[in-house]
Design brief:
By secondary structure, this protein is mainly alpha-helical. Among the domains are: 42 residues, no CATH class; 105 residues, no CATH class. Helices cover 57% and strands 6% of the residues. The protein contains 6 helices and 4 strands, in the order ββααββαααα. The strands form 2 sheets. Strands 1-2 form a two-stranded antiparallel ribbon. The protein has a two-stranded antiparallel sheet with strand order 3-4. The termini are far apart.
Length: 213
């Protein structure tokens, strides 16, 4: 059997002790106030607003957490998509630049199915992932089945790019592990634009050469 609360004069106490209330005999809600006066206290006093904000933040916490998780997921998904796009743009340039050049590793004459092969692996050396001196036309056999055929790659690379650039590439590779490298959208967009311009320039040069011929 439940016992109904007794009516008491509506007058603030505890956190609402400085709030007079209506002083009428009513069923107390919180801090000695009736529902009407408690609501007025919440919205009209500094202490009440603090309590209201705290309650609202607690109620909204799960939604905010979900929204943050969704935002993080969308950002990561967008960044991953942009990385793939930049990779395709970069590799398009590399294969166009090295068209008619033999495989960097084995010397096989150029074929249309040549790939963009990395000397320093893209998955291990993030800062060299899109460095054009680190990427060269390579046959499928060397790039995929021989995992880059790096011994021969190392022998051919200095001749392809020059000793100065080769030494600089090695220096950058040594620095890579000391850098906490993270991709951001603006940097990726800049790299993509760079290779789009380079590709356009080669295509224009090839077109002019064809027209003169």
């Amino acid at each position: 059997m439940s016992i109904s609360p007794k009516r008491k004069p509506c007058k603030g106490k505890n956190k609402a002790k400085d709030f007079k209330g209506c002083n009428e005999l009513r069923y107390p809600h919180r801090y000695g106030l009736c529902k009407t006066c408690f609501g007025e206290w919440l919205y009209s006093t500094g202490e009440g607003k603090k309590l209201l904000d705290k309650a609202l933040n607690k109620a909204q916490a799960p939604r905010k957490s979900l929204e943050k998780a969704i935002e993080t997921y969308n950002q990561e998904k967008g960044l991953a998509s942009l990385l793939i796009n930049v990779k395709n743009t970069c590799h398009t340039f590399i294969k166009l630049r090295d068209k008619d050049k033999p495989c960097i590793s084995c010397g096989t004459p150029f074929k249309e199915n040549f790939q963009a092969g990395h000397y320093y692996k893209a998955e291990l050396f993030s800062t060299l992932k899109f460095h054009e001196d680190n990427i060269h036309g390579q046959c499928e056999q060397c790039n995929l089945r021989l995992e880059g055929n790096l011994n021969n790659y190392e022998l051919s690379l200095p001749e392809r790019i020059g000793e100065v650039k080769f030494k600089e590439l090695n220096r950058l590779a040594g620095m890579d592990k000391k850098i906490d490298h993270k991709w951001d959208r603006e940097l990726l967009k800049t790299i993509r634009k760079l290779y789009q311009v380079k590709t356009k320039k080669i295509n224009k040069t090839n077109k002019n050469s064809y027209e003169r011929a």
